[in-house]
């Protein structure tokens, strides 16, 4: 159930082990939260990623399938936020180039500190760290740090006693946050609760070791679907699940008809945020509780297909700017004249998601004009597209979050999330130690496949149907 990357990988692996598989997907397409939008019907039409748009090269599961499915020749470096010297940041005085921003960032930081007299190196590193938090973290986390001078002061006090030379930002590069936190793991304990866990996302998102797939990230789920001997039924919405001891019965609605199917085993990769709205029978109380409890963060993206890539005339060739306000991040993809004008998470994503699409697009256009006034030129925006994952019927959230939870709480949540209900198994990024990433979804699918295989072959050595 679910033809996102977790469901498709699981079907692919079960097929490979000789099982017969059906895949049910409620939406009209495969891919789930991998969603490449094309501004036109032809394969070469300009496109933008309204869902997952990058893979860290250290994510071995995702990279394995990129290689196995013949996509390695499409891998391209992904230039991310705070990685390009010519891109913009919003400062107290307005837009400023990253290469010229450090004096303004340090000045802003000093005005927040409870005392003076810090080393220049400490101020520069802290200024970049707080910039990364401001650009990426949700509203309440930004407030916990940036709105608390004593908290910032404790961070800079600790930095003042450290050798920061290898990690400092330079005009042509961002600070080496990944290396810093690997070499100084105790530093994260100085961060406010929640941000100490979210810092891993900040480090990953500002790391240079990110890649994307030329032609669209949806090549990954499409290749998986094409490789299946399984039937993939799109526009088939699961509305009921009964996890009986000997089998699983599902109710599916298609073309206003309700279809009832019985399977020896079922793997559910539906996000729990959507599973809450499905009729669930024969579930343990603990399982029902975790389905209702797991927290999802909204995410919203807004893209413009422009008449021309006007940002190139401004010296910008890729990467992303921190455009602040209600739009937060703006990316300049390599795919022609398409601009990912706004990428938000948390409260700001929810606020955009509640708007009607036309109002959302116009709001983003007006906000972006503060950095790129060319966007207001008549005819500059040829078409707009957006995706508010928190308000999407099939996902009802951008990704799972476990901010503010300790290791024990996370382990308990993972165990309950992945625990099978009789012959009903579970996978998806919400069942993974690495939520919010393609790699986590794949890892959970592989673990579920092993669980089904072991359970089925141990109990039913003759019958091999899943």
TrEMBL record:
InterPro entries attached to this UniProt entry: Amino_oxidase, FAD/NAD-bd_sf, Flavin_monoamine_oxidase
Signal peptide (UniProt feature, chain positions): none
Domain of life: Bacteria
Boundaries of every Amine oxidase domain copy: 5-451
UniProt-recorded name of the protein: FAD-dependent oxidoreductase
UniProt organism field: Pseudonocardia adelaidensis
């Amino acid at each position: 159930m679910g033809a996102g990357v977790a469901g498709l990988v699981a079907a692919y692996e079960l097929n490979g082990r000789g099982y017969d598989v059906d895949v049910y997907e409620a939406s009209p397409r495969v891919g789930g939260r991998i969603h490449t939008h094309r501004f036109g019907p032809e394969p070469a039409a300009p496109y933008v990623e309204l869902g997952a748009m990058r893979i860290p090269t250290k994510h071995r599961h995702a990279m394995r399938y990129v290689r196995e499915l013949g996509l390695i020749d499409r891998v391209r470096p992904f230039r991310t936020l705070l990685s390009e010297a010519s891109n913009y940041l919003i400062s107290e005085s307005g837009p400023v180039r990253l290469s010229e921003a450090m004096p303004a960032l340090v000045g802003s930081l000093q005005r927040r500190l409870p005392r003076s007299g810090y080393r220049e190196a400490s101020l520069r590193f802290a200024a970049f760290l707080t910039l990364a938090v401001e650009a990426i973290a949700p509203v309440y986390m930004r407030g916990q740090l940036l709105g608390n001078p004593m908290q910032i002061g404790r961070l800079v006090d600790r930095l003042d006693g450290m050798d920061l030379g290898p990690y400092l930002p330079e005009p042509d590069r961002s600070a080496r946050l990944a290396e810093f936190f690997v070499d100084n793991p105790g530093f994260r304990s100085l961060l406010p609760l929640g941000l100490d866990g979210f810092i891993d996302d900040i480090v990953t998102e500002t790391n240079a070791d990110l890649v994307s797939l030329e032609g669209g990230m949806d090549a990954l789920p499409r290749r998986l679907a094409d490789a299946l001997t399984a039937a993939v039924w799109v526009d088939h919405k699961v509305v009921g699940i009964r996890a009986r001891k000997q089998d699983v019965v599902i109710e599916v609605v298609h073309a206003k008809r309700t279809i009832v199917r019985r399977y020896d085993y079922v793997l559910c990769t539906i996000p729990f945020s959507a599973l809450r709205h499905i009729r669930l029978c024969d579930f343990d109380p603990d399982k029902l509780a975790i389905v209702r409890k797991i927290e999802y963060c909204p995410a919203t993206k807004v893209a413009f297909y422009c008449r021309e890539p006007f940002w190139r005339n401004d010296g910008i060739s890729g990467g992303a700017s921190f455009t602040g306000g209600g739009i937060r991040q703006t990316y300049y993809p390599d795919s022609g004249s398409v601009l990912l004008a706004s990428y938000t998470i948390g409260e700001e994503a929810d606020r955009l998601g509640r708007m009607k699409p036309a109002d959302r697009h116009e709001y983003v256009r007006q906000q972006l004009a503060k950095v790129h006034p060319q966007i207001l030129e008549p005819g500059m925006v040829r078409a707009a597209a957006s995706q508010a994952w928190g308000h999407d019927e099939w996902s009802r959230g951008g990704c799972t979050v476990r901010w503010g939870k300790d290791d024990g709480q996370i382990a308990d949540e993972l165990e309950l999330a992945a625990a099978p209900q009789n012959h009903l198994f579970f996978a998806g990024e919400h069942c993974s130690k690495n939520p919010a990433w393609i790699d986590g979804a794949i890892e959970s699918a592989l673990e579920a496949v092993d669980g089904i295989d072991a359970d089925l072959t141990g109990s039913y050595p003759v019958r091999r149907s899943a």
